[in-house]
Write a structure and sequence with these properties.
Largest sheet: none
Shape: globular
Number of domains: 1
Structural class: mainly alpha
Distance between the termini: 49 Å
Number of strands: 0
Strand content: under 5%
Helix content: over 70%
Radius of gyration: 21 Å
Oligomer: single chain
Order of helices and strands: HHHHHHHHHHHHH
Number of helices: 13
């Protein structure tokens, strides 16, 4: 009987690891392989070294860093109604670590940043997780607002993308093959699995009254904050920085510098929706969405692929670097505090 229970636990553990880690990586890798199967990677270094405008890239990177910093500031405001005033820098470092953690296991960042603040500033894990959920709901509203605005401004391009994605467009477009339909279907299934796992965890939380009570306190804390106007301004600031980080990359390359700001908005929301698919930093679905849209705007598939590869790789590297910086500072501050005791 003990052996059977052990085997069951082992199988369950293997399945959890597979679903949470290996399947997202496999899905992203499979999509990337299909997109770039005929791509000339030797041209990437030539474009980066000789053609890419690094000044625009540096400005884009600045906005990328600021989006994380402002998110940390906003989180501290969300925690104040419950009586917790962690260091602002620790909130920012926790955000750095959270996004880096998502590169390893998609969506684990929300949990990891709460764990970091629990250890660094003694902010209860469950309550801070409640504020994270509330933040995500507000961010969802922001995304839906941007989607509506982008569709209103660029409806013709979106309709064209929808038609090509259905397989009824001319051959030669990335989104016009049976494989593209399979990519979209696999992405939808992956999102459905992610939602199921989240709901399942929430159900387990609900079984413990003390946990759900503390969790709900965190969720409702936003309605009690005194600086809601600042919270709202920082929410807009976060998404402005996200957009500018992406949009300014157009000017890094001659082949994309003529794209309009309205095109940038549609491409941005397409990428924002694509990263919901649980792959590391949206790798695969993000590339698929960006390349498909850029082709519809008249770019060659090779140039669109170059743009997506360089931009996503650099942004992923930035997230990883900030995560390392966050870990170093949080760990260093913790050790310094222990040594003084």
């Amino acid at each position: 009987m003990k052996l059977i229970n052990y085997v069951r636990k082992l199988v369950k553990k293997i399945l959890n690891i597979t679903i949470k880690t290996l399947l997202p990586i496999a899905l992203g890798a499979a999509i990337l392989w299909w997109i770039y199967r005929d791509f000339d990677f030797y041209k990437v270094s030539d474009v980066v070294c000789n053609e890419m405008n690094l000044w625009w890239f540096a400005l884009s990177t600045f906005f990328g860093v600021m989006s994380h910093v402002i998110r940390g500031w906003r989180w501290r405001i969300a925690l104040e109604p419950m009586g917790y005033t962690p260091r602002t820098s620790n909130c920012v470092y926790a955000i750095f670590i959270a996004y880096a953690a998502n590169l390893v296991v998609p969506r684990v960042g929300e949990v990891s940043r709460c764990a970091v603040l629990d250890r660094s500033d003694n902010v209860p894990f469950v309550q801070s997780l409640g504020t994270v959920v509330a933040e995500r709901l507000i961010d969802t509203v922001m995304v839906l607002t941007l989607v509506a605005l982008a569709l209103a401004l660029q409806w013709r391009i979106f309709y064209k993308f929808f038609i090509t994605a259905s397989g009824s467009a001319e051959n030669g477009h990335l989104a016009s093959s049976i494989t593209s339909t399979a990519i979209i279907a696999a992405s939808i299934i992956a999102v459905a699995i992610l939602c199921y796992l989240i709901i399942k965890k929430m159900t387990l939380f609900a079984k413990i009254k003390s946990i759900i009570r503390n969790f709900w306190e965190g969720v409702t804390a936003l309605g009690k904050m005194k600086n809601f106007s600042l919270f709202a301004a920082e929410t807009v600031g976060i998404w402005f920085c996200y957009f500018m980080q992406f949009y300014l990359c157009f000017f890094c390359f001659t082949f994309s510098s003529d794209l309009s700001i309205a095109a940038g908005l549609l491409l941005f929301v397409a990428g924002s929706v694509a990263v919901v698919v649980p792959t590391p930093n949206g790798a695969g679905p993000w590339h698929f969405a960006i390349i498909s849209m850029m082709v519809l705007y008249g770019l060659s598939q090779n140039d669109a692929g170059m743009f997506a590869l360089i931009v996503h790789s650099s942004q992923t590297a930035l997230v990883a670097l900030l995560g390392v910086i966050g870990l170093i500072f949080v760990k260093g501050r913790k050790e310094k505090t222990i040594s003084k005791q």
